[in-house]
Design goal:
Layout lengths: L2 H12 L5 H10 L36 E2 L3 E2 L1
Helix pairs in contact: 1-2
Length: 73
């Protein structure tokens, strides 16, 4: 069971709030949880496709982030 699931279960069962971060610290202290794998990306010094006029740069929104062994956030 992942730390967010433990936090939700404890919050529902005991009627007291427990954060996922707190559950993660407790589980790590007892050796029951490990840190999720982090895949780092190196920032580039410049854009791959540089802009040539005003308002040409576009943004994107990330709505779902899949974390290995944790789920989708």
């Amino acid at each position: 069971m992942s730390p967010p699931e433990v936090a939700t279960t404890l919050t529902d069962a005991e009627k007291t709030f427990v954060s996922a971060a707190f559950a993660c610290r407790i589980l790590k202290a007892d050796g029951l949880a490990t840190s999720p794998a982090v895949i780092g990306m190196k920032a580039a010094d410049a854009f791959a496709n540089p802009t040539i006029s005003i308002n040409q740069l576009r943004q994107t929104e990330l709505t779902c982030l899949k974390v290995t062994e944790w789920g989708c956030f």
